[in-house]
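User: I'm curious whether this sequence folds into something compact or stays loose and floppy. Could you predict its structure so I can see for myself?
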Amino acid sequence: MPTIVLPDILTPVRDHLIADTGLAELIDGRVYLTLPDPLVLPCIRIQRIGGQLSAQSNAEMISGPDRANISVHCWAETVHAADRLAATCRGALLEMPAVVSTPNISRVTETTAPQTIWDTTRTPDLPRSVMTVSITYR
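Assistant: Here's the prediction. I'll summarize afterward.
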């Protein structure tokens, strides 16, 4: 049985968010897969947190779509700024099927709307807005 290697989804998502003009004004390219230390605000971290291969057989696994669940964390200096950043990021993510061609993204579905969850791992605690999306792609 052949090894199935699906296209990377995080790099095109990161590239899309960096290229988005609305986000560029807010974060100046600070979209991370791993947070830097020290953390410069505002910024976004994206992380694949699971998903589901949409296949019923080995043959479909090779050509069938993958559905990736992506966690999106938006940090800023105030709750209002984190919420604004998340709202802008949300719009950019939902438009991906219309503008990203590689990999072929057919659908972006919001699975959890943005919500404020304070980052208590930092001193002082930092405002953060968190959401999840499901991205279907080939």
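Summary: The first strand starts at residue 31 and ends at 32. The CA atoms of residues 30 and 43 lie 5 Å apart.
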